[in-house]
Amino acid sequence: MQPSKKSNSKSATRPLKILFADDEIHLQELIAAELPRMGHEVTVCGDGTEAVEALEKGVFDCLLVDLDMPGMHGIEVIETCKKIAPETEAIVLTGKGSTETAISALRLGAFDYLQKPCKLVELKALFQRVSAQRDLKRQILALKRRLDRAEGSANMIGEHRSMQRLKALIAKVAPTDSTVLIHGETGTGKELAARSVHENSLRSEKPFVAINCGALPENLIESELFGHCKGAYTGASEHRQGLFEVADSGTLFLDEIGELPKQTQASLLRVLESGEVKRVGESEPFSVDVRIVCATHRDLPKMVAEGDFREDLMYRINTFEVKLPALRDRLDDIPELARHLLVRHRPEAARIEAPFDPQAIKQLKNHSWGGNIRELANVIERAAIINDALPIVCDDLPTLSNLKLGASTDALAGKSLREIEMETIYATLDQHDGNKTAAARQLGISLKTLYNKLNADISSRAA
Ligand SMILES: Nc1ncnc2c1ncn2[C@@H]1O[C@H](COP(=O)(O)OP(=O)(O)OP(=O)(O)O)[C@@H](O)[C@H]1O
After folding, report:
1. What is d(CA 134, CA 155) in angstroms, rounded to the nearest whole number?
2. Are residues 394 and 430 in the same domain?
3. Could you tell me which residue ranges the Response regulatory domain spans (predicted)?
4. Cα(186) to centroid of ligand 1, in Å?
């Protein structure tokens, strides 16, 4: 989707899909001609039964319904509408003297009522309110989902060169509508980076909606992304908006995109290319204006080569790729990060010059941080629970050997120190895919010492 020109949608009335039901022919003709002129799409029905059929089949933003119609009464239509499509706003048209019935309609959840003969300007204003109300509802929904995952602001801590480069890239790409692909190991801050893209974009006032593509069963993911119609499958008892709709005019963050099932990859590609979404079970697509940010810890080109990820989708999403550094490659950022994470639990840490004892910082800097900042956040949270005073000291942290080797002392007993040392060296090399410079840095020894130890080990085995 390339919606840049639509991003001025902050105050404009969003085009609505309106269902109109009235038995008066001249009104049907008027509405069929005038509503499209206001920019809306309208389906006209001559009675209540027809309106209910239309509600069963499609999704509407708004139902405009007369009360006194032959056959099914308007009130019944509203009742049915609230059952099968609770998100559709109902507006009642009443003749003189039926104000009481209109009030019953409001009690049933109707949005408002208009008395006949009504003026087009009144209708227009009402649709503006419906549109604003729907925007608000979407935002609330998105906020609720965000709140569930609330983890503070999108402020990315880190002054290491790699972080400075990353922040500069985000600042450049954020105001555009380009799709961004964020690559990084687990816990490196991919979601935070995605939020930062959103918050620095022109869409910052609009919803930011996140979904972990690996967290939902294959049969639910399409419905979660694109929505579904009532009856689309067993258990779909009402129409439901998908996240593309919820994120409309905002940003949709597709976390762990590499985990998306093959079939959904095809559907997603269609949506990204056409800018149109079709709810599961619905035949008519509708346009959405969504900026996409994806993230993965997987090697997508490798997945493509192995046939697990669509090549065309990869090229569609990697327009702008950013890589998040692992925490072990920016250990100097640890003091600031640790303070930032501690403030979440102990606000007073923000005002203290040294909320951590220097030895504790040293211990934190010595660890390999396979789980990156998420792991650091857990260690800090645990420390904040153990120690209710500041500064945090070494005793409040898990012991370094446990952290570093990830092994119990039982597993080490019976081995010589030399064996343990070599096991640690080989495990660290494995972690760094054989990169000796990175392994030596993490082990806290020089590259030369690492070579000496490896050579000595090889010679002793050969002897
Ligand atoms: N640069 C940063 N500054 C401050 N906090 C950060 C930073 N990066 C990550 N965090 C924090 O670390 C935790 C993990 O971050 P986030 O969820 O964004 O990582 P992720 O890469 O998306 O994780 P996963 O791979 O598990 O999905 C969060 O609490 C987040 O706020």
Report:
1. 30
2. no
3. 17-131
4. 9
